UniProtKB/TrEMBL annotation:
<dbReference type="InterPro" id="IPR006059">
    <property type="entry name" value="SBP"/>
</dbReference>
<protein>
    <submittedName>
        <fullName>Sugar ABC transporter substrate-binding protein</fullName>
    </submittedName>
</protein>
<dbReference type="InterPro" id="IPR050490">
    <property type="entry name" value="Bact_solute-bd_prot1"/>
</dbReference>
<dbReference type="Pfam" id="PF01547">
    <property type="entry name" value="SBP_bac_1"/>
</dbReference>
Length: 447
């Protein structure tokens, strides 16, 4: 009953990065005749898959070249919501899904509760378990089962403009209290907004609340009708009040992110900082930031902490390869899921071209990756200084089976917070009431 009620819940903004292109094909499923890639090794078993990474063709070709026992037929049916809607249609119809699907980690429970994904623990998990950290595995797990192979993630940090910091003699704040102090100093001197509170980034707000100590959801499929919803705890209220206060004082902007207006503001120095994930440099570069007169103006520092003596690392975004419930051969599909984007050549292309921030420990511990000088940040070794320690410290979260509804509800409350019609505490209370009522409507017992 719960699964049926959630049939329309899948979908939403691609969290790992903004849209990087529409679909190159409109069909796929288990039909191996509509591959976007060219399969050169004939008469081998074929595993179909959907995915939207910008270098997906290269990744699939690399896999197929390395294997003489299976070939991958790849189709791009769209990014994020576009793909999820097609997958949801296939779930409802009982046919039309691929064997393997790229899915953002926070959407895994939505599909898992519909029995649309396969627990791949019995299909070679032990052989690759050591290739990823505990946080990455938790993000692709529901209870004790594993429903995806981690590929990329988004450990959070603070990107900042060196020219603004230098002009106003600001050093990177190590705490959120220092962040507010620096913001006020810049504003009092007639400077730009210190950051931005966008209503359209609810997953970011969720991560910032978790950093303060919030646990939005607890869920275990062993008790499929029970779910913990705690969106009005003190930590959640504190973070909403903090950012609402910054906005109310005019210390941060309130522009929706990933919009032309926001990017224009970033380019023109309207914001001194950008609280974002490790995929942000690649996104910003693709959006035209850090080029021309902007070259060399950006740096990055660790995410400010509430208690620097007990730092908490959090994540925004990330995707995985999952085996669908319609896979013709789940064991063979799992082999593909484990092997895609896991070879040295594909991983190297991903991080050197700033397409992904890899979660594979073979890369995170590779001296070449750790010591890489990132052009966007003026050649600084930001992986070593910021992003790898953030990834190493991340412990993972529990996502809900109705993540899209929660994000939509959070966006509604963030919009009200920005308008000043509610306080942060009130927004948290309303969010709790909204999401808990929705969960109960779907047949859950809210704890």
């Amino acid at each position: 009953m719960i699964a049926a009620a959630l049939l329309a819940a899948a979908g939403g903004l691609a969290a790992c990065s903004p849209d990087q292109g529409k679909s190159t094909a409109a069909a796929g499923g288990n039909d191996a005749s509509s591959c976007t890639n060219t399969i050169t090794k004939q008469n081998l078993p074929v595993v179909t898959m959907w995915g939207w990474y910008p270098n997906m063709r290269l990744v699939v070709d690399n896999f197929n070249k390395r294997h003489d026992d299976v070939q991958v037929c790849w189709t791009n049916v769209g990014q994020g919501n576009d793909e999820y809607q097609k997958f949801q249609t296939a779930i409802s119809a009982g046919t039309g899904a691929p064997d393997v699907i790229m899915v953002e980690m926070d959407r895994i429970p939505t599909f898992q509760i519909q029995n649309a994904l396969v627990d791949i623990k019995k299909y070679g998990f032990d052989a690759v378990k050591a290739d990823y950290g505990a946080g990455a595995w938790k993000d692709v797990s529901v209870g004790g089962a594993v429903y995806g192979v981690p590929v990329d993630g988004g450990p959070l940090a603070m990107i900042y403009r060196k020219d603004v910091f230098d002009k106003y003699r600001i050093t990177p704040p190590k705490t959120w209290a220092e962040y507010e102090q620096a913001a006020r100093k810049v504003k009092d001197a007639g400077g730009p907004h210190f950051g931005d509170l966008g209503a359209n980034v609810p997953a970011l707000m969720m991560a910032l609340q978790i950093q303060k100590g919030a646990t939005p959801f607890t869920y275990d499929p062993a008790r499929p009708k029970a779910i913990g919803v705690r969106l009005d705890d003190q930590a959640s209220k504190d973070v909403l009040d903090y950012w609402g206060g910054l906005a109310r004082q005019g210390l941060v902007g309130t522009q929706n992110q990933f919009t032309p207006e926001y990017i224009s503001g970033v380019i023109n120095g309207k914001y001194a900082t950008y609280i974002s994930a490790a995929w942000a440099p690649g996104y910003l570069t693709g959006a035209g930031v850090g080029k021309g007169k902007d070259t060399g103006r950006f740096a990055v520092a660790p995410l400010p902490q509430w208690d620097p003596a007990r730092p908490v690392q959090v994540n925004w975004g990330g995707s995985a390869f999952a085996v669908t419930g319609q896979a013709k051969d789940p064991a063979l599909a799992a082999k593909v899921a484990y092997g895609l984007y896991a070879d040295d050549a594909s991983l190297a292309d991903g991080w050197t071209n700033q397409i992904i921030f890899p979660l594979n420990l073979k890369v995170l511990k590779d001296p070449e990756f750790v010591a890489a000088k990132v052009a966007f940040f003026g050649g600084r070794q930001v992986n070593k200084e910021v992003y790898v320690p953030a990834a190493d410290g991340y412990r993972g979260v529990t996502y809900s089976p109705f993540g899209q509804y929660y994000y939509d509800a959070m966006t509604k409350q963030l919009s009200a917070l920005i308008k000043g019609s509610v306080t942060g505490a009130q927004a948290a209370d309303r969010l709790q009431q909204d999401v808990a009522a929705y969960a109960e409507e779907q047949g859950f017992t809210v704890q």
